[in-house]
Automatic annotation (TrEMBL), chain A:
The chain crosses the membrane at residues 12-30, 37-57, 77-97, 127-145, 157-182, 217-238, 250-274, 280-300, 307-328, 340-365, 386-406, 426-450, 462-483. GO terms for biological process: ATP synthesis coupled electron transport. It comes from Asanoa hainanensis. Keywords: Cell membrane, Membrane, NAD, Quinone, Translocase, Transmembrane, Transmembrane helix, Transport. GO terms for molecular function: NADH dehydrogenase (quinone) (non-electrogenic) activity; NADH dehydrogenase (ubiquinone) activity; quinone binding. It comes from the Bacteria. The lineage of its organism: Bacteria, Bacillati, Actinomycetota, Actinomycetes, Micromonosporales. This is NADH-quinone oxidoreductase subunit N. Residues 124-437 form the NADH:quinone oxidoreductase/Mrp antiporter transmembrane domain.
Automatic annotation (TrEMBL), chain B:
It is found in: Endomembrane system; Membrane. It holds the Pfam family Proton_antipo_M. This is NADH-quinone oxidoreductase subunit M. Residues 141-427 form the NADH:quinone oxidoreductase/Mrp antiporter transmembrane domain. Coiled coil: none annotated. Belongs to the complex I subunit 4 family. The keyword Magnesium does not apply. Keywords: Membrane, Transmembrane, Transmembrane helix.
Length: 493, 504
């Protein structure tokens, strides 16, 4: 049987893969660090632009029961975001590569491969594509995390990340296999109806699929496996040591692009394939645990990267909360369902932009080869380098969800609104109280930036690629802070 | 024209805040000029938009909606979050708008001559102007979500003012302020969307004019909103952030905190909580009244034992806001009118008191009541003004403080029933205690022979800057005291409609 393949739908994926190949070729034939980096950045930006341009609804690799590759405006948003985030992280890596910490060719190649996984993941229409794309996204990161070869922490971080991630993938795969065993379906769009209908196992009498213990086990394993990827509590323990041990730009990638990947996978699974009545309570519990534990532990952190890591654990909780509310309201309407998905997606977008801004500022303030360092070393940073310090403070305040970080404020507003529209008032109250705990540590760091510095540290020159990324992320955050409707419209899909 | 003025009142301080980008003196001048322009715009706004006469009690038509804006602007902003740029001004909000622009202007002028230690003066002025934008936006917002956004805008600039230019324990005080008020405003967020999700609209004019919410939604919404506003007001027992913040903040910060920021809580209670969830308000009124009276008594008793000047004034705010909240809790026209005029009077008088306390601390480097003494001997003008402000604050008839306190008590008696009469009696006792602690403060600070701390500094004359900053407040304290109609005349009609809507 021959299938017609819609190459336009696949174009962003092709471009991302081509970027990886081109980077290797450029590294082989030109062997100039700058050229390799420029090729990688251009490829990432081109991928993003193409994803935006061809964002119309398309599908390919279709069988009667569903399509394996589905492009719509939301997947285009994710793919574009992925491209831009990768470009940003590549630029942030410039000082690191110049310092010779990592070989430029391999570094850029691995990031481009990871981006390919993310772009494909955005459009994945069946469970196999989804899990393979997610693995393509994660696999290069094992190496990248271990790139700071001089230090033990980096190696330890890479091993932790590798082991946890592989286990998580195995768990998700097992879940997918069990669901396939019950329904003999893999396509997300046909899995939902199959799970709510009747099935007959091994030629026996038809029973409701949801009554089978096998179904519950499959759903639970799939969701929990993906919860590892977004570092939801109690599957979060890998994140802080991994972020702290990885080179700073890679930590930025982990907490933005890689987290975005996990969210995309979860969204695809819980909104399309799995019945919300089953996943909702699990996700609500995960959300409450994730934000509360993340915020409380972040209060005690004294290292910058660990603080950002724990805070990004907590932020994942806010993203999960609307998804958890999907099932909790008995009289939930289609509108409330859409509001919840829109809130989760737009929160993710606002979050990754602010997080990229925060990491870009940290990269700009640190030595090229350094890790995040202790919070003390940021004392008075905003007095030494006014704009970088202000941008970092703005990003942190945005993550806390307060004006003048309007983007973060509207992200929180969207989440709380969706929870109350879905009549999950108690979850909204927990989200709200967590925002107060969050402010306690964000404002502590922001105030530290403006505190007088007794040591009078000298001002350092700021590498321009990092400054550029910082300026772009901050400008974007300010722009969507005043016009959040742009993101909300796009997230509606 | 009046729409343009409405926008100008909000936009001018926002533009003035850009003064932070300039060098220190230029930035301060820039900010002060824009604060002055905003003040002028707010005066013109009243002159142009309120055309039915200022001092006439024109009763509202029966069944009129509680909010009939004199003028309003409405534009779409974020439809997906039910957020519209809907601003308007009426008799309830207008006095507070003028109070805000006036106090901010006075603070900017004061900063022009006197920058507290801690940072650049232009940054301080810019932060004050951002706080002003937040406060004005809160008073002018006619969209519930917009109200919340502006309520939040105030938080971090005020934090920065306290943390950057405050006293010795400023960081702790600032963080306490930020966390407490954020706790209040996140509950506000939940309350706002409880209302919006149930009613399907965030328009305050619609929400207050017709009751579409079920009883349970109203109770939940009122509980959330009332806690949110009680933190901001602050209502005992949620007041503990206030003494620290007031004591540690620089003078201009204390003035804005006490003068206007607290009013966001009481204004929100009247306009949003009572207006949107009247049934919830009726349900919670006895509890609110009891807490308000507890605040009055606790505030007075703490003040009687207080040994620090700024802390005493801060705690006196707890007592005064207790009277305001008691007025709101009665849900009668007299009570809400008393609350509104009490709000304005407290803003004027406590603003003046904080300016004076700051002047005392600047000169003698202490606010300790045991160390101060005999101020009359060294600086008759300063001590005379302090006496004037203290007497106005304790509610002498003829000065601004009288109307709010007296009529809050009257309203409690009007409401009738054993419970309310008890509350009225207790509040009246609180009024007497207020007189007691202010007189005690005056005796300690101004009377007797000059203490060593007061006698030591060489020059203690009042400067021109101080007189410029204080005299409008002195005049207003007299004006509102003698002609309360300047406030009451504006708010009579909307309050009458509100009470009609609240009482079944």
């Amino acid at each position: 049987m021959t299938q017609s393949v819609d190459h336009v739908a696949l174009l962003p994926g092709y471009l991302a893969a081509a970027t990886a190949v081109l980077v290797l070729l450029a590294d082989l034939f030109v062997a100039r660090r700058a050229v390799t980096l420029v090729v990688a950045v251009c490829g990432a930006v081109a991928t993003a632009v193409v994803a935006i341009v061809f964002s119309g609804a398309r599908a390919t690799f279709c069988l009667p029961e569903g399509c394996s590759y589905v492009v719509n405006s939301r997947s285009a948003l994710f793919a574009a975001l992925f491209g831009f985030l990768t470009a940003g992280v590549l630029l942030l890596s410039a000082p690191l590569l110049r310092a010779g910490v990592a070989p430029a060719g391999e570094y850029c190649f691995l990031l481009a491969c990871s981006m390919t996984g993310g772009v494909v993941l955005a459009s994945a229409g069946d469970l196999i594509t989804l899990i393979i794309a997610l693995e393509t996204l994660t696999l290069p990161l094992y190496v990248l995390v271990g790139m700071r070869r001089q230090t033990m922490e980096s190696a330890a971080a890479a091993v932790t990340f590798f082991v946890v991630s592989v286990v998580a993938t195995a768990v998700s795969l097992l879940g997918a296999a069990l669901l396939y065993a019950v329904t003999s379906r893999l396509h997300l769009s046909s899995l939902g109806p199959a799970l709510t209908g009747d099935v007959s196992l091994a030629g026996g009498d038809p029973v409701r699929a949801l009554d089978l213990p096998l179904t519950s086990a499959g759903i639970a394993l799939l969701v929990l496996g993906l919860a590892f990827k977004v570092a939801a509590v109690p599957f979060h323990a890998w994140a802080p040591p991994t972020y702290d041990g990885a080179p700073l730009p890679v930590a930025a990638y982990l907490s933005t692009a890689s987290k975005l990947g996990g969210v995309m996978a979860l969204l695809a699974v819980v909104t399309v394939a799995l019945p919300p009545a089953v996943t909702g309570p699990v996700l609500a519990a995960l959300a409450v645990l994730t934000m509360t534990v993340g915020n409380l532990v972040a209060l005690r952190q004294i290292r910058m990267t660990r603080l950002l890591a724990w805070s990004s654990v907590a932020q994942a909780g806010y993203i999960l909360a609307p998804l958890g509310a999907l099932a909790l309201s008995p009289g939930r309407t289609g509108e409330a369902f859409d509001t919840a998905i829109t809130a989760a997606v737009s929160y993710t977008v606002f979050f990754v932009v602010l997080e990229l801004g925060a990491f870009a500022a940290v990269v700009a303030l640190r030595e090229p080869t350094a890790d995040g360092g202790r919070l003390d070393s940021y004392r008075g940073a905003a007095r030494r380098t006014r704009w970088v310090g202000a941008a970092l403070a703005l990003a942190l305040i945005g993550l806390a969800g307060l004006p003048p970080g309007l983007a973060g404020l509207f992200a929180k507003v969207a989440v709380v609104r969706s929870l109350l529209t879905g009549s999950s008032g108690w979850l909204a109250v927990i989200v709200a109280l967590n925002a107060v705990i969050g402010l306690a540590y964000y404002v502590r760091v922001a105030a530290l930036l403006y505190a007088p510095d007794p040591l009078n540290r000298p001002t350092r020159a700021i590498p321009w690629p990092a400054a550029g990324v910082l300026a772009a992320a901050t400008a974007f955050a300010i722009a969507v802070g005043f016009a959040p409707q742009l993101v909300l419209n796009w997230a509606t899909g | 024209m009046s729409e343009a003025l409405l926008v100008a009142v909000l936009a001018l301080p926002a533009v003035g805040a850009l003064g932070a980008l300039f060098p220190d003196r230029a930035g301060r001048l820039f900010g002060t000029v824009f604060a002055a322009l905003a003040f002028v715009a707010s005066l013109l706004l009243g002159a142009y938009s309120h055309t039915t006469g200022w001092f006439s009690y024109t009763p509202a038509a029966s069944g009129a909606p509680p909010i009939v804006p004199w003028t309003s602007v409405d534009a779409s902003w974020v439809p997906a979050l039910d957020l519209r740029l809907h601003f308007g001004v009426d008799g309830v909000s207008y006095p507070l708008v003028v109070l805000t622009t006036l106090l901010t202007l006075l603070c900017c002028l004061y900063t022009w001559w006197h920058v507290p230690a801690g940072g650049r003066g232009s940054t301080l002025v810019a932060l004050l102007l951002v706080v002003e934008v937040g406060m004005l936006g809160t008073f002018l917002a006619l969209d519930l979500v917009l109200f919340f956004v502006f309520f939040e805008v105030v938080l971090l600039p005020m934090y920065a003012v306290i943390a950057g230019w405050g006293g010795e324990r400023r960081r702790h005080a600032a963080r306490k302020f930020a966390l407490y008020t954020l706790f209040g405003s996140v509950l506000l967020l939940v309350g706002v969307f409880t209302v919006v999700a149930a009613a399907g609209t965030a328009d305050l004019v619609t929400l207050t004019s017709s009751t579409v919410l079920t009883r349970n939604t109203q109770l939940a919404a009122f509980a959330l909103l009332a806690i949110a506003f009680a933190v901001k007001s602050p209502l005992w027992p949620l007041h503990t952030w206030l003494p620290d913040a007031h004591t540690q903040a620089p003078t201009v910060g204390s003035v804005l905190l006490a003068g206007v920021l607290l009013k966001m809580g009481t204004y929100g209670l009247i306009r949003v909580a009572v207006g949107v969830a009247p049934e919830g308000a009726r349900w919670a009124a006895p509890l609110l009244g009891a807490l308000a009276v507890a605040a009055i008594l606790v505030g007075c008793l703490v003040c009687l034992a207080q040994t620090e000047l700024k802390r005493l004034i801060a705690y006196s705010s707890v007592g005064h806001m207790g009277f305001v909240l008691l007025g709101v809790a009665t849900l009668t026209a007299t009570g809400i009118q008393a609350a509104l005029i009490g709000n304005v009077a407290h803003g004027i008088i406590t603003g003046l008191l904080f300016f004076l306390a700051g002047a005392v601390k600047d000169r003698f480097h202490t606010g300790d009541l045991a160390v101060l003494g005999g101020l009359r001997e060294r600086s008759p003008w300063l001590s005379g003004l302090l006496a004037f402000a203290a007497i106005a604050s304790l509610g002498l008839p003829g000065l601004a403080g009288f109307w709010g306190e007296a009529f809050a008590v009257v309203a409690a008696f009007e409401r009738g029933g054993a419970g309310w009469i008890t509350l009225g009696v207790l509040a009246a006792i609180g009024g007497a205690l207020t007189a007691a602690y202010f007189l005690r403060m005056l005796r300690k600070v101004t009377h007797g022979a000059a203490s060593p701390a007061v006698a030591a500094p060489p020059a203690v004359r009042l400067s021109g800057a101080e007189l410029v900053a204080w005299s409008p407040l002195v005049v207003l304290a007299l004006l509102v005291g003698l002609v309360p109609a300047v406030v009451l005349g504006l708010s009579a009609a909307p309050v009458q409609s509100l009470v009609e809507a609240v009482t079944p």
